[in-house]
């Protein structure tokens, strides 16, 4: 009975991890402690100057999240990217992450100022709003499958012969 339950759980987890939004969320979840550790490091390094330490921590966690999303969440696209493609995607990821950060802040601020929601309730709501936004924007802008170039198509035709 326990073995059957384990197999059912294993099958359930496999189905769950096939869902891209779940993988994306896991990577985002990893980014939270990465950001906190980087913040701790930069706060020490910059003698408690929070604005710059926070910006550096954001960059570290955003970069790590991008790499993990590229390798784990969108792994099927790795083979189609050149070095320039990675850099282009990383730039787009930075822009979408910055816009999501701004959206998170504005959503929480609106909840606090206009609806008098407690900041400790408004902040996670803002994060969830930003997560949904960031997932769909990243899917359409950052991690859109690359279009094959003429050279790539010709190489594929030669290989198929």
Structure description:
- This protein is globular.
- 84% of the residues lie in helices and 0% in strands.
- The protein has helices at residues 2-18, 20-45, 50-73, 83-115, 119-142, 150-160.
- The mean pLDDT is 87.
- The protein is mostly helical and 161 residues long.
- It is built from six helices and no strands.
Measure the end-to-end span: 52 Å
What is the average of the pLDDT values? 87
Rg from Cα:
20 Å
- For the report, how would you describe the main beta sheet? none
Category from helices, strands and their pairing = mainly alpha
- What percentage of residues falls in helices of 4 or more residues? over 70%
| Number of DSSP helical runs | 6
Strand content: under 5%
Count of strand segments: 0
What string, H for helix and E for strand, traces the elements in order?
A: HHHHHH
Task: Sum up the overall morphology in one term.
Answer: globular
């Amino acid at each position: 009975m326990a073995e059957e339950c384990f197999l059912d759980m294993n099958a359930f987890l496999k189905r769950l991890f096939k869902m891209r939004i779940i993988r994306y969320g896991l990577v985002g979840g990893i980014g939270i402690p990465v950001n906190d550790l980087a913040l701790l490091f930069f706060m020490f390094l910059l003698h408690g100057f929070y604005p710059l330490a926070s910006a550096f921590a954001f960059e570290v966690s955003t970069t790590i999240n991008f790499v993990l999303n590229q390798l784990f969440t969108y792994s099927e696209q790795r083979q189609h990217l050149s070095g320039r493609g990675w850099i282009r995607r990383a730039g787009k990821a930075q822009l979408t992450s910055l816009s999501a950060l701004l959206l998170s802040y504005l959503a929480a601020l609106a909840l606090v100022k206009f609806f008098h929601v407690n900041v400790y309730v408004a902040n996670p709501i803002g994060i969830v709003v930003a997560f949904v936004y960031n997932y769909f924007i990243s899917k359409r802008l950052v991690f859109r499958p690359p279009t094959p170039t003429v050279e790539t198509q010709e190489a594929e035709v030669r290989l198929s012969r």
